């Protein structure tokens, strides 16, 4: 092997060291966030926080598995990629002897169904915001996995300044939009 190939290979290996599924020395496996923050941010960002949640989880998977996936595109096409993500989380939980409350397939299917209901006419499209209900058990499993994989990690419970801005501005416009959608007559 030439010196150039050895240098290139060692450079790649130093950047990319896959983490054992049971390793607890490399940090969190998945995106940590409290259940309250997940739900509040979902409503106050008009559901955009869910896609941020998908992106962050895929980003950590990419890092830990040393894969060449694109977290951005997997988040954009979450209706397709939620199935493998939820399945990976369920599998990781089983490796750690954690029982999932509900099957990953049921949770992913429910999330997809409620997400596509945004196409419904007024006021029925509002039901799409309840899709977060299917993320809550997944996040609960993530929080338990992270606690075992990285005891003492930051559980991301605090609302940052940007989160508070989103709660005030986005939450206010969300409440107003729901009120107008439900009670305004033309």
Question: Your description of this structure?
Answer:
There is one protein chain. This protein is an all-alpha fold and 186 residues long. The protein has one domain (27-183). It has helices spanning 3-15, 35-44, 48-65, 71-76, 78-95, 104-116, 136-149, 161-183. Helix 5 (78-95) runs antiparallel to helix 6 (104-116) and helix 5 (78-95) crosses helix 7 (136-149). The protein is globular. The termini are far apart. The model is unreliable at 6-14 and 20-26 (pLDDT under 50).
Kindly summarize this structure in a few lines:
The chain has 186 residues and is an all-alpha fold. 62% of the residues lie in helices and 0% in strands.
Using the alpha-carbon principal axes, give the shape: globular
* Low-pLDDT segments, ≥5 res: 6-14, 20-26
The oligomeric state of the chains shown is: single chain
Count the DSSP helices.
8
Q: Give the distance, in angstroms, between the N- and C-terminal Cα atoms.
A: 76 Å
Task: Give the ordered list of helices and strands.
Answer: HHHHHHHH
How many distinct folded domains? 1
Could you tell me the mean pLDDT? 87
User: How many E-type strands?
Assistant: 0
Q: How many strands, what sense, and barrel or not for the largest sheet?
A: none
User: In percent, how much strand structure appears in the residues?
Assistant: under 5%
Structural class: mainly alpha
Radius of gyration: 19 Å
Helix content: 55-70%
Blueprint of the fold:
Layout: H1 3-15, H2 35-44, H3 48-65, H4 71-76, H5 78-95, H6 104-116, H7 136-149, H8 161-183
């Amino acid at each position: 092997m030439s010196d150039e190939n050895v240098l290139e290979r060692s450079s790649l290996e130093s950047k990319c060291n896959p983490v054992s599924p049971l390793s607890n020395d490399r940090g969190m496996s998945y995106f940590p966030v409290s259940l309250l923050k997940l739900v509040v941010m979902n409503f106050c960002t008009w559901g955009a926080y869910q896609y941020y949640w998908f992106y962050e989880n895929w980003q950590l998977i990419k890092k830990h598995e040393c894969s060449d996936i694109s977290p951005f595109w997997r988040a954009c096409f979450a209706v397709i990629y939620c199935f493998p993500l939820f399945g990976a989380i369920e599998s990781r939980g089983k490796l750690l002897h954690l029982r999932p409350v509900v099957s990953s397939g049921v949770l992913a299917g429910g999330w997809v169904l409620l997400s596509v209901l945004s196409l419904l006419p007024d006021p029925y499209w509002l039901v799409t915001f309840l899709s977060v209900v299917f993320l809550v058990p997944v996040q609960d499993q993530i929080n338990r996995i992270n606690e075992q994989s990285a005891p003492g990690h930051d559980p991301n419970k605090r609302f940052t300044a940007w989160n508070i801005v989103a709660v005030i501005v986005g939450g206010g416009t969300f409440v107003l939009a729901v009120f107008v959608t439900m009670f305004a007559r033309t």
